[in-house]
Amino acid sequence: MSNQNVIAKVVLPYAEALLEHSYQNNLSDEVSQNLSIISDTLEQSSDLRLFFNNPLVSVELKKNVINHLFADQINTFVLKFLLVLVDRRRITLLTLIITKYFDLVYKLNSTAIAYVSTAIALTEKQQEVLIQKIKTMTNSKQVKLEMSIDLSLIGGFTIQIGSKKIDTSLSGKLKQMALYLSTK
């Protein structure tokens, strides 16, 4: 069994437990906000990620840092959840657990996640039109756009929804033309 399969099997029960508890106690919005705060903090601080991933740092020190950083920002349940992860030496999987939690939430709410890369930033109106098109394509109730700017696209955009990729970029069209011409 590959290492990723093992990690996925470890991550899923934690994400499911978090989801189940948050929905049973009508805390899903609050838990999602709390996890976004934690995720943003980890994304912005490579030192914090290294600290949590370091097996030489004691459990108590990790707990103290978590309490110091998040006690005033997140609810008690999420804080206790983080401390359990530290106790069970699973804090290194926190980012994966948060990602899996949001995947489960989106699936539960019929939300499609679309990763959109554009050469220039889309206006709100353009994003709204794109969201409506994606809702129609995927039969989803909601769409969450993950936007990024990629200057190598030259113009247009690419969209990835699950394993499906739509490339309307100028660079994509040029690559198609080059491939077509090279086969002739």
From TrEMBL:
Classification via InterPro entries: ATP_synth_OSCP/delta_N_sf, ATPase_OSCP/d_CS, ATPase_OSCP/dsu
Membrane topology classification: Peripheral membrane protein
Classification via Gene3D superfamilies: N-terminal domain of the delta subunit of the F1F0-ATP synthase
Subcellular location: Membrane; Plastid, Chloroplast thylakoid membrane
GO cellular component terms attached to this protein's record: chloroplast thylakoid membrane; proton-transporting ATP synthase complex
Keywords: ATP synthesis, CF(1), Chloroplast, Hydrogen ion transport, Ion transport, Membrane, Plastid, Thylakoid, Transport
Domain of life the protein comes from: Eukaryota
Keyword Thylakoid annotated: yes
Single GO MF annotation: proton-transporting ATP synthase activity, rotational mechanism
Pfam families associated with the record: OSCP
Keyword Lipid biosynthesis attributed: no
Cross-referenced HAMAP family: ATP_synth_delta_bact
Primary role: F(1)F(0) ATP synthase produces ATP from ADP in the presence of a proton or sodium gradient. F-type ATPases consist of two structural domains, F(1) containing the extramembraneous catalytic core and F(0) containing the membrane proton channel, linked together by a central stalk and a peripheral stalk. During catalysis, ATP synthesis in the catalytic domain of F(1) is coupled via a rotary mechanism of the central stalk subunits to proton translocation.
Record-stated family: Belongs to the ATPase delta chain family.
Classification via PANTHER family: ATP SYNTHASE DELTA CHAIN
Complex and partners: F-type ATPases have 2 components, F(1) - the catalytic core - and F(0) - the membrane proton channel. F(1) has five subunits: alpha(3), beta(3), gamma(1), delta(1), epsilon(1). CF(0) has four main subunits: a(1), b(1), b'(1) and c(10-14). The alpha and beta chains form an alternating ring which encloses part of the gamma chain. F(1) is attached to F(0) by a central stalk formed by the gamma and epsilon chains, while a peripheral stalk is formed by the delta, b and b' chains.
Name by which UniProt lists this protein: ATP synthase subunit delta, chloroplastic
